[in-house]
Amino acid sequence: MTTQYSQTLTLAVPAPLTEPANHLAALVGESPADINTFRQATYTDGTTDYAVAHTACTPTLLERLTTGQLPAQDIPEGVDLELAKQALDAINAEGGALMAIDVDPHEQFAAWGLEPIRSDDEALI
Question: Where in the sequence is the domain holding 57, given as residue range(s)?
Fold first, then answer.
């Protein structure tokens, strides 16, 4: 049995772009639940906090993200196209969202200089 999900995608989105990134995920994703892909910032580089995601994906999704070719029709209900475009622009801008393909997410987070954000409870241990 073969699957369309032949690659993986790792993303780190600056906390202020969480909402736009969720609209982008819902626009190019497979389910209305994709609007909740990025919930809260869980990694930091010491300056910027990031919400992260790692998922299996199709080559079509990667093509849309790397070329900027967003769907022009069949926009899912509740998706703000302008917010989705804002997130896409951030993926393709230096210093914006971070994206890597077919990598171990934890190794990639480290390569990006990201560390998990420790809660106050964890800092006391």
Answer: 7-123
Q: Is 78 left (phi over 0), alpha (psi -120 to 50) or beta?
A: left
- DSSP code per residue over 57-98: E-HHHHHHHHH----SS-PPTT--HHHHHHHHHHHTSTTS-E
User: For the chain, how many structural domains are there in total?
Assistant: 1
pLDDT, tens digit (0-9, with 9 covering 90-100), for 90-117: 988 887 899 999 999 999 999 999 999 9
> Does 48 map to a domain?
yes
pTM reported for the whole predicted model: 0.87
Residue 2 lies in a domain: no
1 contacts: CB under 8 Å, gap ≥ 6: none
Contact 20, 11 (CB under 8 A): no
Query: CA angle, 42 as apex, 37 and 45 as ends, to 5°?
Result: 120
Q: Is residue 87 part of a domain?
A: yes
